[in-house]
Write a structure and sequence with these properties.
This protein is α+β, with helices and mostly antiparallel strands and about 270 residues long. The chain contains six helices and 18 strands. The protein is globular, with a radius of gyration of 18 Å. The N and C termini lie close together (about 5 Å).
């Protein structure tokens, strides 16, 4: 079997920044074990598998996401990368809304003057005490903790400063033992141009630190919209690669906006 394969840097306008995702364009549904092996081979945070579901005039696609270790229910950057590839390769008409059928329901993507806008479900966090082992795994910066909660997927921690978020050096072995998909650490931005900063750790699903996490912003958008009193915000994920995510919170939905760059085109054989 040969499959068109792309690597796309998402939530960035520059190559070699943002979050890289692999995108495989399938003709039909593939066997899950094969998809998991491909994702392990790609060794990126997520590999997306896209297959057409509608007629030639429709832009309806099935979409599944795999880390190197497991299938996940929701992924922002690989969805953005998939939409970018579908428009760029002519699999969806220019300017046409793309509808993805996923484990998290229907997700829509639109091209807003070069910015990909994703319509995702909000996953707001409710207050919840973090496990002691989680704070221990995060180390000294976690002592600045201001607020803690739990979303559908992750623990969300507001730390006392941007410096505390940037200074996190987790013990990933200990963090892997915490029962959660991932851990979001966030703080108000202290620099111009951004409203908040964040980092995301998910060693339990095979990703020690994710460079830029769209799905985490389904919790971050509502969290900061409530605190700052504005629906439209811009977040910076302060990983080594870094990336920018725009959020618009509207009830039970969050619009995620970002750019993408294709850095590799090829053919998967096997």
């Amino acid at each position: 079997m040969t499959v068109p394969l792309f690597q796309v840097d998402a939530f960035t306008a520059e190559p070699f920044a943002g979050n890289p995702a692999a995108v495989c364009l399938l003709d039909q549904e593939a066997e899950p074990g094969w998809m998991q092996r491909v994702a392990a081979e790609m060794n990126l945070a997520e590999t997306a598998f896209v297959r057409p579901l509608g007629s030639g005039d429709d832009a309806v696609f099935g979409l599944r996401w795999f880390t190197p270790a497991v299938e996940v229910e929701l992924c922002g950057h690989a969805t953005l990368a998939s939409a970018h590839v579908l428009w760029g390769e002519g699999r969806a008409g220019a300017g046409m809304e793309i509808r993805f059928q996923t484990l998290s329901g229907e997700l829509c993507a639109n091209d807003r003057d070069g910015v990909v806008e994703l319509d995702f479900p909000a996953t707001p966090a409710a207050p919840a005490d973090p496990p002691a082992e989680l704070l221990e795994a995060l180390g000294e910066p976690a002592r600045t903790l201001r607020w803690a909660g739990r979303s559908r997927f992750d623990h969300l921690l507001e730390l006392g400063s941007e410096a505390a978020v940037r200074g996190l050096e987790p013990d990933f072995r200990k963090l892997r033992e915490v029962s959660t998909r991932g851990v979001i650490a966030t703080a108000a931005s202290e620099a111009g141009g951004f409203d908040f900063v964040s980092r995301f750790f998910a060693p339990a699903v095979g990703i020690d630190e994710d460079p830029v996490t769209g799905s985490a912003h389904c919790a971050l958008g509502p969290f900061w919209a409530d605190r700052l009193g504005r629906a439209d915000l811009t977040g910076f994920q302060a990983s080594r690669r870094g990336g920018v995510v725009r959020t618009h919170t509207a009830g039970d939905r969050v619009l995620l906006g970002g750019q993408a760059v294709t850095v590799l085109r090829g053919t998967l054989v096997g």
